[in-house]
Amino acid sequence: MSEQDQLIIGNKNFNSRLIVGTGKYKNLKDMIECLAKSETEMVTVAIRRLNLLNISKNNNLITAINWENLWLLPNTAGAKTTEEAIRLAFLGRELSKRIGQKENNFVKLEVISDPKYLFPDPIGTLKAAEFLVKKGFIVLPYTNTDPMLARHLEDVGCSTIMPLGSPIGSGQGIQNINNIQIIIENSNIPVIIDAGIGSPSEASLAMELGAEAVLINSAIAKAENSIIMAKAMNLAVQAGRQAYLAGQMVPYKFAQSSSPLKGSKFLQLSENS
């Protein structure tokens, strides 16, 4: 991808527009190979899952990844309240420093109080986002497909908007396309589709709609062959982005001949014979 089409979040530029999660894989080896095949440059890790007190010995997830080539996106998954999300965000920033990314202030903000449907808490998310931005974080908030909430999150200084495609881990694809398009059209910061993407075609669709990137975990980790799926998602994201940049044709109500004969030499010869 050319430098002119890089993904820019906060103070960081990325060539890849595919962000990959680290949960639900069959084993650690598969996860590492999937990260490589996806060609991702940003990897999200749930801080709640980690033993930060003994990271060098017990935390294989962190020590197995080469952080010289990948950017850590700590996430606050599992936080049910604003306060808990804020605490996890600070732990995530500390982890970034400990793996050598001293300028990494990124956090994927999740506040989910509903254990059944796992929809993000809009009020708790907005409160946590406003606080964390003031503390110098690059905040990437996970949200519902609510255009007004997206505007408020942008207004308080978030660096992206991350609306869900459909419920977390469901693989139901992109359900509320109209609202997502409204969010994309009215946002001055990158919109990243997060959660629910189940297939490469859905990842491509997200990019064709104008999303700047997608975040995918379950669709890769739960595939029969995760490694092949990681590569497929990478290619799909690239194809969708190129299609968006190309400017797709306007649909017609009726058929349009792809090979009109009017004015052709063949037609002229036929008329003269």
Shape: globular
Strand content: 5-15%
Radius of gyration: 21 Å
Largest sheet: 5 strands, parallel
Binned, the helix content reads 40-55%
The end-to-end distance, rounded to whole angstroms, is 53 Å
Order of strands, main sheet, comes to 5-4-3-10-9
CATH class: Alpha Beta
Quaternary assembly:
single chain
State the CATH architecture: Alpha-Beta Barrel
Number of helices: 11
The SS-based structural class is alpha/beta
Q: Average pLDDT value?
A: 90
What does this structure look like?
The chain has a single domain, classed as Alpha-Beta Barrel (TIM Barrel). The protein has helices spanning 28-38, 55-58, 60-64, 82-98, 122-134, 147-155, 177-186, 200-208, 218-221, 226-246, 265-272; strands spanning 7-9, 12-14, 18-21, 42-46, 71-75, 106-109, 138-143, 162-163, 192-194, 213-216. With 273 residues, it is an alpha/beta fold. The protein contains eleven helices and ten strands. The protein is globular, with a radius of gyration of 21 Å.
For the structure shown, list the relevant keywords.
alpha/beta; 273 residues; 10 strands; 5-stranded parallel sheet; 11 helices; TIM Barrel
Helix and strand topology:
Layout: E1 7-9, E2 12-14, E3 18-21, H1 28-38, E4 42-46, H2 55-58, H3 60-64, E5 71-75, H4 82-98, E6 106-109, H5 122-134, E7 138-143, H6 147-155, E8 162-163, H7 177-186, E9 192-194, H8 200-208, E10 213-216, H9 218-221, H10 226-246, H11 265-272
Parallel strand pairs: 3-4, 3-10, 4-5, 6-7, 7-8, 9-10
Antiparallel strand pairs: 1-2
